[in-house]
């Protein structure tokens, strides 16, 4: 929730949940300000890639495959790297 922008981003894993949320919150008035809920105008995880599994390597050590069939979400790049490397360190002990 970015209050200064009066804007919030919500990620749903299921399209049905997302649609339900749009129906529930769209047009709702919160503290005098009507909410406008809609899909992101372009990209942002929706579209054909929606149901694809996220790329494990993208989230950990980095994925360099041009033809990778898994999702590469920019915000998730290397997000699990610490978890992944600490797990490896644990195994090595
Ligand atoms: Zn990948």
Automatic annotation (TrEMBL):
C3H1-type domain mapped to chain residues: 49-75
The keyword Metal-binding is annotated on this UniProt entry: yes
InterPro entries: Nucleotide-bd_a/b_plait_sf (IPR012677), RBD_domain_sf (IPR035979), RRM_dom (IPR000504), Znf_CCCH (IPR000571)
A GO MF label: zinc ion binding
Zinc finger (C3H1-type): 49-75
Keywords tagged on the record: Metal-binding, Zinc, Zinc-finger
Alphabetized Pfam families for the sequence: RRM_1
CDD domains, alphabetized: RRM_SF
The name this protein goes by in its record: C3H1-type domain-containing protein
Lineage: Eukaryota, Metazoa, Chordata, Craniata, Vertebrata
């Amino acid at each position: 929730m970015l209050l200064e922008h009066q804007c919030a981003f919500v990620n749903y894993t299921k399209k049905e949940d997302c649609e339900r949320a749009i129906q529930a919150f769209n047009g709702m008035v919160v503290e005098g300000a009507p909410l406008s809920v809609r899909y992101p105008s372009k990209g942002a995880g929706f579209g054909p890639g929606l149901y694809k599994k996220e790329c494990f390597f993208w989230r950990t050590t980095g994925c360099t495959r041009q033809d990778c069939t898994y999702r590469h979400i920019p915000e998730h790049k290397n997000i699990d790297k610490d978890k992944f490397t600490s797990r490896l360190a644990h195994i090595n002990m």
